[in-house]
Amino acid sequence: MENKKKLIALVIGIILIILVSGLVFYLTSHLTKTTICKGKLDMITTEEVEVISSDEKVKETKTQVTYDYSNYVSDMYPISYYKDYIKNSNKFYKDINGVKASLKVKGNKVIYTVDIQYDSDYMKDLVEAGLVSTNGSYKDIEYISLQDTLKNQENAGLTCKEK
User: Fold this and answer.
1) How does pLDDT run along the chain (163 residues), one tens digit per residue?
2) Start-to-end Cα distance in the chain
3) What is the Cα–Cα distance from 82 to 80, expressed in whole angstroms?
4) Which of 22, 34, 41, 65 is deepest in the core (most CB within 10 A)?
């Protein structure tokens, strides 16, 4: 009888270990992951992109492009001149569902920030704004690939590392 109790306790213990292991594996494979891609694009421009993903699907990107005009600001060309230049020469993604964009000045730097939510509710707007490309309809996009996103960032000259 005692051996039977020990066997039952052992079987229950093994089942619990398997269940807990399975739960841990499931949770760690479905957790949110953050990858940081950054680099210097030219003499004045640095970029940092925070790619937030889950299950190898991009959920959001937070991009910060910093233009350092320290060697160029003067009385003739104040920092406001460069801020206006950046605003007028870049697509400024205002009033697009799923996108938050801002432009600010910090010292002699102009900081351009774009946060994009890759939710299916926003996909039509993202495609129309040129932020997501597709060969078909926006309705055909199931998700944004983390692997492709990181490859694109690296092709642009950024170095990516998981946080």
Assistant:
1) 677 777 776 777 787 788 776 666 665 556 889 999 999 999 999 999 999 999 899 999 999 999 999 999 999 999 999 999 888 877 767 789 999 999 999 999 999 999 999 998 999 999 888 888 888 888 888 889 999 999 999 999 999 999 8
2) 54
3) 5
4) 65
pTM: 0.77
Q: What DSSP assignment string belongs to 57-88?
A: EEEEEEEEEEEE-TTT--SSS-HHHHHHHHHH
Strands 57-68 and 109-117: antiparallel
Contact 68, 81 (CB under 8 A): no
The whole-angstrom separation of Cα 138 and Cα 120 is 9
DSSP 159: E
Q: Which residues contact 132 (CB under 8 A, 6 or more apart)?
A: 118, 123, 126, 138, 141, 144
Question: Smallest Cα–Cα separation from 68: which of 101, 110, 39?
Answer: 110
